[in-house]
Amino acid sequence: MAFISDRLARIKPSPTIAMSMRAAELAAEGRDIISLSAGEPDFDTPLNVRDAAKAAIDAGHTRYTAVDGTPSLKRAIADKFARENGLDYTPSQITVGTGGKQILFNALMATLDAGDEVIVPAPYWVSYPDMVLLAGGTPVVVECDQVAGFRLTPQALEAAITPRTKWLILNSPSNPTGAGYDRAQMAALCEVLLRHPQVWILADDIYEHLVFDGFEFCTPAEVEPRLKDRVLTMNGVSKSYAMTGWRIGYGAAPEALIRAMAKLQSQSTSNPCSVSQYAAEAALTGPQDYIRDSRAVFQRRRDLVVAGLNACAGLDCPVPQGAFYVYPSMAGLIGRTSAGGTRIDSDEAFANALLDEQGVAVVFGAAFGLSPHFRISYATANEVLEDAMARIRQFCAGCN
């Protein structure tokens, strides 16, 4: 009898974390490494949020809370949905977890049975398919290439739906591409979903506030209220407020799903960190200037990186609508050999050679389900990005 569960054989370690760890190991060996692999803002958490956390500690709010969130945080989340998204939820329709990842995991674990299908547009965040597999479901990956703007089309969605389809996962703006769905594009997908009442929508809105060039964010339950009773709208404080380490995500959905997710959480992590919950409440209810200011910085960084990559031989980088990633094609380098002698026959070979020869860590596109591409996170300082662009340009110029 094997000791390790067969369940773990269905999934693989996160490629983004693996690349970040490899970059960290090389840096520890004394190599000059620029890591553009992690999706984490480089800003400090806002001062009012840090102050709220300290005050919570001093007030003794360091004990267990309700399993899936304090009443006051749930109220703040409900107010946020009403204020920013025009969505009416009661606190009983809100759940809070240890990061957005737990919200997604709880929802899939609480609803999927063997044979249930989940539509996952590709490129996708690396964890979506593995979460589905771990929950016993079947990911149905639908390729959304650069020609389609990395977006799922209504026709492709219709073709992917079967009687076993239980969820569609929709991430806008997207990790890894930064592509977003405008209101007309979202409405067209919703029209398809209205015809298939067995399909629920998992809306991953974690990059909601990181949108550029006047792009207007929208979410499925807002665009098509008739779908609201089968939508889980997931969000969190990690990206918008630079609170990745605080580990607070939240979701809103019909009460029956929320209760099922809370039941699961009660037997896994129990409540999220009490102090982090008070900090998240301060983030949602306090001044929002931080979001506006950080968004402007990210847009300037995006422009720097897009221009830098498009100046590299063999690369083609579209302009994303949001998040803090770019997803350039490196098709023009396939079949070439790097200056260090590596045959570039895939985006994984490209990423490994770039790290080995120039000390720049990126994540290869196959990890996100669409090649030949790679992902860069530009959530780091301008001077670091400029150095990275120069190194990538030198690497590409050396490929022949």
User: Can you summarize the main beta sheet?
Assistant: 7 strands, mixed
Shape estimate = globular
What is the helix content?
25-40%
Question: What structural category do the secondary elements indicate?
Answer: alpha/beta
What is the level-2 CATH architecture name of the largest domain? 3-Layer(aba) Sandwich
GO molecular function: L-aspartate:2-oxoglutarate aminotransferase activity; pyridoxal phosphate binding
Subunit structure: Homodimer.
Catalytic activity: L-aspartate + 2-oxoglutarate = oxaloacetate + L-glutamate
Pfam family, one: Aminotran_1_2
What distinguishing features does this structure have?
400 residues; 40% helix; 13 helices; 12% strand; three-stranded antiparallel β-sheet; alpha/beta; Aspartate Aminotransferase, domain 2; globular; seven-stranded mixed β-sheet; Aspartate Aminotransferase, domain 1
What would you say this structure looks like, in words?
- By secondary structure, this protein is of the alpha/beta class.
- It has 2 domains: 6-44 and 290-397, Aspartate Aminotransferase, domain 1 (Alpha-Beta Complex), CATH 3.90.1150; 64-285, Type I PLP-dependent aspartate aminotransferase-like (Major domain) (Aspartate Aminotransferase, domain 2, 3-Layer(aba) Sandwich), CATH 3.40.640.10.
- It contains 13 helices and 12 strands.
- Helix 2 packs across helix 10 and helix 4 packs across helix 9.
- The model has no long low-confidence stretch (mean pLDDT 96).
- InterPro entries: Aminotransferase_I/II_large, AspAT/PAT-like, NHTrfase_class1_PyrdxlP-BS, PyrdxlP-dep_Trfase, PyrdxlP-dep_Trfase_major, PyrdxlP-dep_Trfase_small.
- Residues 32-392 form the Aminotransferase class I/classII large domain.
- It catalyses: L-aspartate + 2-oxoglutarate = oxaloacetate + L-glutamate.
- Its EC number is 2.6.1.-.
